[in-house]
Write a structure and sequence with these properties.
Bac_rhamnosid6H, Immunoglobulin-like, Jelly Rolls, about 900 residues, single chain, 14 helices, EC 3.2.1.40, 10-stranded mixed β-sheet, alpha+beta, 6-stranded mixed β-sheet
């Protein structure tokens, strides 16, 4: 029997309070194994605060992002919503569990009486370092009544943690997160009834540190980017059961003081002196009130908060050649360490220095550049205490511990690793018979987790940690399968539009933009700027949320209009471009010096994003002349690209893996003969020139496998994927990597760190190959936006004997598993597919051209299996195409 498994509003977690939408769209997913079940109608019931019930029944098969069927919510209004559905065969589900929907403060005047409060004295101890402060306020609730509903609405200029009567409020970390503060500052909503005492004095304390607002950021070491003072905005609203409302906001009645946190920087770490804890002698000062202008910028969050998601044990305690004590957690991750208990004489100073790798047995800190990544605890000599830093985070596997009290030697039980990231719902899983590929996939997942701390960053450890647009653009297809990123990336894309508008249509390299006049920061850059088109489309494909396209359509057009063009419509060839960034042939200190011509890459992506915006225009039913304009642009740009870069036979002027991969994947070759020739040429480059080693960077890596598979050469890519020599995907795995590296050779075969100034061991971009693992090895991909129709078309290869994948779509769980079974000299392929209710699946079995369309339920097939050539042989020099590949009379051009 079909049942409603889950109900949620917009892209929020279930039962999120304080949402910013007054007409939140509702979605529900299904569970059950009924065959060919489809929804015919749904009923939504809302229970209001006053007990009233509203109900609407609608004949529709839609179960994803259905329009809000009731009157708009007002600020702070709370309703409980439940859903039931009717479907084929006269079936009817039970009511779902109720979903709590509570609006936040939807209008600026809801904050009336609240002011920004700041310390009345400067807190900047040295340039770029603000000492954290504690803001305090007391409030008394009326006697004889209990709190019926109590909420804390709060945000900060900086990052905060709130306590009431000594109890921590909520489990969010590093709130309010990082947005383009000049336009958008998120506030959070907390339920606080359990912490309040009726008829007694209640005390609220809020620790605030510099965070992204005024702390030192990135490699330019800029600070005070959004303001020069830490600040707080908060509103407490308590509804008593006798109807009384107690309202307390930030105003001149609050006090502030310094506590035991001496320093708290995102890059450098925390210094905590327990001897300076709050006491009767602590000096509390009156706050000063700042500008009220920030109230108009307050917005409810779109995505999930940053939380602790896991704890990791210490795997080993090492002693370095220099005698240092080093903790090994066995996994590179993002967060910090927590001490279960520590004690010692007053003034004992313990230092924790973090690093991703070891070099010559010592922690490798050179890749961190100017980031200290150092947490310091000074003990007060009192009873043993647990301790962990806050208001910072590090990317690390190893921790060098200095100063641990000798009276109680450090053990693995004393310390635990705290893993943090934006708490997104895991949606995609993949496994296969090859343990190294499974480890590679896990490395990709860990890199994604570590680089989604509020925004999608490039790296989580060194003095950078920025929202580079190119990285997430190339990784979008992979990450949108692995996690539900719609809410978090929707928020980030709003900041992208803010920064794009400030740059006259150009999408800056990083979002939020903090680089000022730094080099190419606000110059037009293909792939990086193309995120304005490609990312909204990728999220639309996975979520089916057409509002994403509506919201970003103008941004897409602005970006295409901002691209400097030549007379042909292609990119104007003036200036340096990042293009195929981190091509493995590029010098260590010149990562954009790639083999593939930079403007070939720019122009290939220009054709691609123009094709996408034409699809967006059609999807949104844009004016006919607008749709016709973009369709015409596609044809003109393809002709211009062919004239500039493609010979009549299909040979590319730039003879590289990236060039052919982009040309094949973006349909830049005009005839079947050109496509065949280009595919053979790409295969030859891989088999003969590189001998299955990778020679692609940011631009080519996500598309290489897809292009080869499209050309019927998946076995060639299997050979590349399973290759273990550097550069390859499995080389880092064989070197013990537990995350994806920034460079193919971030660590050299002899164990030394790459000499380049830019070397991270946690960068997800080159992990975009996971998309090929999902779509080709497993064979699982969407056909219609939102996965209403999806395809199962596995392409087994290599030495794999089985693979399985699962995607938790907005409709339910899409699952498959295939296995190759031997029966004597013959091989049989067994395939099992699970299709969730209210969806359809297109199944194509290996060796068959037929497309089988099935509805919901579980099904199995078994067919004869005829593998491709394996192992694919490398071809020997000299480097000359076979006669049947090189058209008669065509001269082999020199290598580019």
């Amino acid at each position: 029997m079909v049942r409603i498994a889950r109900v949620w509003a917009e892209h929020h977690e279930p039962d999120t309070i304080g949402i910013g939408e007054d007409r939140p769209r509702i979605s529900w997913s299904f569970a059950g194994d009924d065959r060919n079940w489809e929804q015919i109608c749904y009923e939504v019931e809302a229970k209001h605060d006053d007990g009233r019930l509203s109900s609407v029944t609608i004949e529709s098969s839609q179960s994803r992002l259905v329009p809000w069927p009731f009157r708009p919510l007002s600020s702070r209004e709370r309703v409980e919503v439940r859903v039931r559905v009717a479907g084929t065969a006269n079936s009817r589900s039970d009511w779902s569990s109720p979903l709590v929907i509570e609006a936040g403060l939807l209008r600026s005047d809801d904050w009336s009486g609240c002011q920004l409060i700041e310390p009345s004295q400067p807190t900047e101890t040295v340039p770029g370092k603000h000492r954290p402060v504690i803001f305090r306020r007391r409030l008394v609730l009326p006697e004889g009544a209990a709190a019926k509903r109590a909420r804390l609405y709060i945000t900060a200029h900086g990052i905060y943690e709130a306590h009431i009567n000594g109890f921590r409020i909520g489990d969010q970390l590093l709130a309010p997160g990082w947005t383009s503060y000049q336009e958008r500052l998120a506030y959070q909503t907390y339920e606080i009834e359990p912490q309040l005492l009726a008829g007694q004095e209640n005390q609220i304390d809020v620790d605030v540190a510099e965070g992204w607002f005024c702390g030192s950021l990135a490699f330019l070491c800029k600070h005070n980017l959004y303001g020069s003072r830490i600040g707080l905005i908060a509103l407490i609203l308590v509804e008593m059961d006798d109807g009384t409302i107690v309202r307390t906001g930030t105003d001149a009645e609050w006090e502030w003081a310094h506590g035991p946190m001496v320093e708290a920087g995102l890059l450098d770490g925390v210094t905590y002196d327990a001897r300076e804890g709050l006491s009767a002698s602590t000096v509390w000062r009156t706050v000063q009130t700042g500008s009220d202008g920030c109230i108009t910028r307050l917005t409810a969050p779109d995505g999930p908060p940053i939380r602790q998601t896991q704890e990791l044990p210490v795997r080993a305690i090492l002693t370095s050649p220099s005698g240092k004590t080093i903790l090994d957690f066995g996994q590179n991750f993002v967060g910090w360490v927590r001490l279960r208990s520590v004690s010692g004489p007053a003034g004992t100073t313990i230092r924790f220095r973090h690093a991703e790798v070891l070099e010559d047995g010592e922690i490798g800190v050179r890749p961190l550049r100017s980031a200290k990544c150092l947490d310091t605890l000074i003990i007060d000599g009192a009873a043993p205490i647990p301790w962990e830093p806050k208001f910072t985070f590090h990317g690390f596997r190893y921790v060098e511990v200095d100063g641990w009290p000798a009276a109680s030697p450090l053990t693995v039980e004393d310390v635990v690793g705290v893993v943090i990231h934006s708490d997104m719902r895991r949606t995609g899983h993949f496994r296969c018979s090859d343990p190294l590929l499974n480890r590679l996939h896990e490395n990709i997942v860990w890199s994604m987790r570590g680089n989604f701390v509020g925004i999608p960053t490039d790296c989580p450890q060194r003095d950078e940690r920025l929202g580079w647009t190119g990285d997430i653009n190339m990784f979008a297809d992979t990450v949108s399968f692995l996690f539900d990123v719609s809410g978090m990336l929707s928020s980030w894309m709003k900041d992208m539009m803010v920064e794009q508008n400030a740059a006259n249509g150009v999408v800056p390299l990083v979002i939020p933009y903090i680089l000022g006049d730094f080099g190419p920061g606000k110059s037009a850059e293909a792939m990086w700027g193309d995120v304005a088109v490609m990312l909204p489309w990728a999220l639309y494909v996975v979520s089916g949320d057409i509002q994403l396209l509506q919201r970003h359509y103008q941004s897409m057009k602005d970006w295409l209009n901002a691209i400097p063009r030549s007379a042909s419509g292609l990119w104007k060839q003036a200036g340096h471009k990042l293009a195929d960034w981190l091509d493995p042939s590029a010098p260590a200190d010149d990562p954009s010096n790639a083999m593939t011509d930079m403007y070939l890459v720019c122009d290939a992506f220009l054709v691609h994003v123009t094709t996408l915006i034409a699809r967006v225009a059609a999807t949104l039913n844009a004016p006919p002349e607008e749709q016709a304009f973009y369709k015409g642009q596609i044809a003109d740009l393809r002709d211009a690209f062919a004239h500039e870069y493609i010979t009549p036979s299909g040979r590319l002027a730039c003879d590289t893996q990236t060039a052919y991969a982009l040309a094949l994947q973006f349909n830049l070759l005009s005839t079947p003969e050109q496509q065949t020739h280009a595919a053979e040429r790409l295969s030859l480059l891989i088999r003969q020139r590189s001998r299955f080693k990778i020679s692609t960077g940011f631009a080519g890596t996500p598309y290489l496998g897809h292009a080869l598979t499209k050309a019927g050469k998946s076995n060639v890519f299997y050979r590349m994927l399973l290759h273990r020599e550097c550069p390859s995907w499995l080389y880092p795995v064989t070197m013990g990597a537990t995350t994806v590296w920034e460079r193919w050779d971030s660590m050299l075969p002899d164990g030394r760190i790459n000499p380049g100034d830019m070397t991270s061991f946690n960068h997800y971009a080159l992990g975009a190959v996971a998309s090929w693992m999902h779509r080709t090895i497993a064979g699982l991909e969407p056909v219609e936006p939102g996965w209403r129709v999806f395809r199962v078309e596995p392409v087994p290869g290599g030495n794999l004997q089985w693979a399985e994948a699962e995607y938790r779509s907005v409709y339910g769980d899409c699952r498959l598993r295939w296995e190759i079974k031997r029966e004597g000299k013959q091989q049989r392929l067994w395939l099992e597919v699970v299709v969730p209710p209210n969806t359809k699946c297109q199944v194509r079995l290996p060796g068959s051209a037929d497309l089988i369309v099935v509805g919901s339920g579980q099904r199995t097939w078994e067919v004869d299996y005829h593998p491709q050539e394996w192992p694919v042989r490398a071809l020997q020099p000299p480097f000359r195409p076979p006669d049947d590949i090189l058209p008669k009379g065509e001269v082999v051009p020199h290598e580019w």
